[in-house]
């Protein structure tokens, strides 16, 4: 069975600094996608970034980038120039391609300190 | 484009009752997935519908059911409510067609907060 592990329940970062959130996963599949979602206190889940397993290049979206280590089954999220609005729960998710069944980690609560 | 909408946003029921939650996907999206979010179990997949057919389901009892209409709107029903069904129920939509990059990406609605007393 596929699993997703986020080992950091809570992280803090100073405004304008960089923070990295960790995620590891376990799967025997070769075709899959990985995602990071953000859930602010308003509770609407927002897609931050996605990564296709077949792509070696790490995905980036503005201040957000990932470090995808396929052999190690690691998928960390780096947030650069942290802003107060980045404060939220961050969930890592895995999908065996084509199943539309996401498996989520337990989340990391990110606090941004002014 | 309008995002995923869910109604109602909040619901209070008592044990033994049944409840129906509604989800309208992003225009053009044909896949709708449902998730239950609780502090203890986190986010868990309930089921996914595409073109009125359930394609995948999670490990939930038969009290949890769903359906999808021809306009891609979806409903989920929980019968004989239990206290443990109190949760945030999230709906997500995606294009649903495999192959092209990005089509698996799910976009979430604001959720329905169900409280069972």
Can you offer a commentary on this structure?
The complex is a heterodimer of chains A (114) and B (117). Helix content of chain A is 0%, strand content 54%. Chain A is an all-beta fold. In chain A, the strands form 3 sheets. In chain A, strands 2, 5, 6, 10, 11 and 12 form a 6-stranded mixed β-sheet that branches. A 4-stranded antiparallel β-sheet of chain A has the order 3-9-8-7, with no helix packed on it. A two-stranded antiparallel sheet of chain A has the order 1-4. In chain A, 36% of the residues are buried. Chain A has strands spanning 3-5, 10-14, 19-21, 24-26, 32-39, 46-52, 60-61, 64-69, 74-79, 88-96, 102-104, 108-113. Chain B has strands at 5-7, 10-13, 19-24, 31-38, 42-50, 53-57, 64-68, 74-78, 87-94, 107-108, 112-116. The chains are: A mainly beta (114), B mainly beta (117). Chain A binds chain B through residues 33, 35, 37, 42-47, 50, 52, 91, 95, 97-107, and chain B through 31, 33, 35, 42-45, 48, 50, 55-56, 58, 88, 90, 92, 94, 96, 98, 101-102, 104-111.
Main attributes of the structure:
heterodimer; A: 114 residues; mainly beta; six-stranded mixed beta sheet; four-stranded antiparallel beta sheet; globular; B: 117 residues; seven-stranded mixed beta sheet; 11 strands; 51% strand
Distance between the termini of chain B: 37 Å
Number of E-type strands of chain B? 11
Mind describing the biggest β-sheet of chain A?
6 strands, mixed
Query: Percent of residues of chain B in helical segments?
Result: under 10%
Indicate the low-confidence ranges of chain B by residue numbers.
none
Distance between the termini of chain A: 41 Å
The proportion of strand residues of chain A reads over 45%
Q: What Rg of chain B is obtained from the alpha carbons, in whole angstroms?
A: 14 Å
């Amino acid at each position: 069975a596929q699993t997703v592990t986020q080992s950091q329940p809570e992280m803090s970062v100073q405004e304008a600094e960089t923070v990295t959130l960790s995620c590891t996963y376990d799967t025997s599949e070769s075709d899959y996608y990985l995602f990071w979602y953000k859930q602010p206190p308003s509770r609407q889940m927002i897609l931050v970034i996605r990564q296709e397993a077949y792509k070696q290049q790490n995905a980036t979206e503005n201040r957000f980038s990932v470090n995808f280590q396929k052999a190690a089954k690691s998928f960390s999220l780096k947030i650069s120039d942290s802003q107060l609005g980045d404060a939220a729960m961050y969930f890592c998710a895995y999908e065996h391609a084509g199943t539309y069944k996401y498996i989520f980690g337990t989340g990391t609560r990110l606090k941004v300190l002014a | 484009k309008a995002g995923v909408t869910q109604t109602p946003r909040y619901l209070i029921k008592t044990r033994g009752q049944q409840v129906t939650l509604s989800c309208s996907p992003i225009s053009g999206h044909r896949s709708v997935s449902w998730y239950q979010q609780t502090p203890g179990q986190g986010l868990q997949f309930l089921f996914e519908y595409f073109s009125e057919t359930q394609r995948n389901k999670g490990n939930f009892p038969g009290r949890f059911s769903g359906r999808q209409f021809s306009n891609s709107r979806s409903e989920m029903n929980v019968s004989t409510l239990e206290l443990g069904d109190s949760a945030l129920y999230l709906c997500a939509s995606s294009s649903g067609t495999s192959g092209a990059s990005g089509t698996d990406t799910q976009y979430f609605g604001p959720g329905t907060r169900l409280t069972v007393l």
